[in-house]
Amino acid sequence: MDCETLERVRGSLMDFLGTRGLRRTIQREAIISAAFSTKDHFSAEELLDKARQIEKSVSRATVYRTLPLLVESGFLRELDLGGDVTVYDPNFVEHPTHNHLICVDCNKIIEFEDTNMELLENCITRRLGFSPASKAVKIEGHCDELKMHGSCRHQKDKAS
Question: pTM of the full predicted structure?
Answer without folding.
Answer: 0.74
